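#structure-requests
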Amino acid sequence: MLDRVGSCRIEGEIASGGMAVLYRAVQETLGRPVAVKALKTAVQEDVAFAQRFEREARTLAQLQHENLIHVYEFYKEHGALFIVMELVDGIDLYDLLEKVPRLPFSVAACIALQVARALTYLHTMGVLHRDLKPANVLLSKSGIVKLGDFGIADDPRYAADLTATGATLGTPSYMSPEQILGERLDWRSDQFSLGIVLYQMLVGRKPFAEDALHSLPEKIRTQAPPSLAKLCPDAPPALLRIVERCLRKKRDQRYRTPEQLLIALEGFVSDHVGESGQSCIVRFLVERGLLPPAELETLPAPKVMRRTVRLTVPPALKTPLLHAGLLLMMLVLVQCVRWLPLGLPRSPLASATDPDAQVAQLLLLVDPWADVLIDGQKVETTPFARPLRLRAGRRYLELRGPFFKPVRQALDLQPGQRRVLQVQMPPLSKGS
């Protein structure tokens, strides 16, 4: 086993595949744990594979999003190639499905939602992943989902497509019909692959499998998957409709933009999951013994419900005059209690019952991405498709990211206003 790569001290092997080996290491210059991906010696002799490996490093280095693996460094040492990247402390979806073949629909939807956020960001950067499958979806112990392995990604910043000589490179079980046919791809091919992954999470097996009569490519191109409604009767129809649309054979019948798919999944999670997506994933992993119970302590506190005040009128006071006076007192008391401090900061987000005329809408277009804090409270991570519904008035916006300088701005939002704000995140200086 290797001892060192650049400034990284190798501690042990994490996994080994057909083309590369993944090691756990410590980047001693910064004192942080990292993962080191090493291209196998036998593969390095193929120039195309070596070029593809280097291009993967360059592509990921240009992409900064919460739901993507971050690349720190690329090394060429002693004729070998290495990528130093973020170490995701958790489990990949492939291993999770080996241990728990069927996931609760709430967990499956929360995982798919975070992958859809990554795909939305990739679309804005013009990048196609082209190999979306469970082994490339990683779940951190904090519940953040990361999409990795961009070995055959299509990046427009590079003129030559290194997969042109083998247009069907990828994993056959997760390919779209157009990818099997070698047609020119767009983001809807990645959407089809996400549909297969979501189907597998719900059912416990992939929708298309080869048999004695039909090959796998033929089934993907011509046959409908087995009915989800029959195989997963406990899943809400809204989620089944999302999967069914992602898996349509003709790409123009799928979601036309990543934002449409993102809105559908966000709406489903909002309606059917009673906590944040990260909390849902962490809670599930703890319940299955895949994370220690202590991880539950890091989850955000549940939302505080508005207090309800109930007063009982004694029979002796039920005269018309006293009853009317008591009713007036109750109305005044309820209004007072409504505005009493609850010991927690009031959410800047408008509630579902607040009328649109009293709410301001804020759509953020952030390049490349950022965590969004309003009045000091984290409310979202970009990109997101729907505007934030905020209480009108002065709001304090802060945008944060691990690789950028924070952006802070005071916003005076008027009732009924719809505001679009575009922000370019400033990178950290080398000395930061």
